[in-house]
């Protein structure tokens, strides 16, 4: 029995040395091969950000702050045109996926979920079922209402500006008459 334990101990030590050696080799390989590639990628991303993205983002934010109504309108149009970009990733982020999901786990913990509830609609939408059409319809409806509100606001502002100009012109004409 002592010989067996001694052999087992020796085998474990040899296995540990082999594992340590392999780990050391992988670590050296990673440092020599992978780290420079990651540094090159990081440098390239940094270059792209500072030369292109930063200036575009600052111009986009400046435009959005100067023309808030137009920016919101463009966002709503984008949501309506590219709905699949918004809803499906959002559902996946919330855990509502086609396969086994966090939502299914939550439902198993919660118990019965009433049909037609928001949870049931999201789960159906995550499985690309009829709930997806419902969710897409709700999303498009909200975006369309916001777009309508923005358009109405812009029309009202434009009319108010036109009336101010007319008042200013009529006042100039009255001043000329006197």
Give me the secondary-structure topology.
Blueprint (H helix, E strand, L loop, with lengths): L1 H65 L1 H14 L1 H12 L7 H9 L7 H9 L3 H48 L1
Helix pairs in contact: 1-2, 2-6, 5-6
Structure description:
The chain is an all-alpha fold. It folds into 2 domains: 66 residues; 112 residues, no CATH class. The chain is 88% helix and 0% strand. It has 6 helices and no strands. Helix 2 packs antiparallel against helix 6.
List low-pLDDT spans.
none
Oligomer class? single chain
Shape annotation:
elongated
- Tally of individual helices: 6
* Helix content class: over 70%
Number of strands: 0
Strand content: under 5%
Largest sheet: none
Instruction: State the end-to-end distance.
Output: 124 Å
Which features does this protein show?
about 90% helix; about 180 residues; mainly alpha
In short:
The chain crosses the membrane at residues 68-86, 98-122, 134-156. The chain has 178 residues and is mostly helical.
């Amino acid at each position: 029995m002592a010989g067996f334990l001694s052999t087992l101990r020796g085998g474990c030590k040899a296995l540990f040395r082999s594992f340590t050696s392999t780990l050391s080799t992988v670590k050296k390989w990673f440092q020599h091969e992978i780290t420079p590639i990651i540094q090159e990628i990081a440098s390239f991303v940094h270059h792209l950000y500072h030369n292109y993205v930063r200036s575009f983002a600052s111009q986009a934010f400046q435009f959005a702050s100067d023309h808030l109504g137009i920016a919101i309108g463009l966002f709503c149009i984008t949501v309506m045109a590219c709905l699949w970009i918004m809803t499906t990733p959002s559902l996946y982020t919330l855990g509502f996926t086609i396969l086994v999901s966090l939502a299914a786990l939550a439902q198993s913990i919660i118990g019965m979920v009433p049909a037609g509830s928001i949870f049931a609609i999201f789960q159906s939408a995550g499985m690309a079922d009829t709930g997806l059409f419902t969710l897409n319809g709700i999303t498009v409806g909200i975006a369309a209402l916001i777009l309508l509100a923005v358009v109405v606001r812009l029309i009202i502002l434009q009319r108010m500006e036109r009336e101010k100009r007319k008042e200013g012109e009529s006042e100039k004409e009255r001043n000329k008459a006197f």
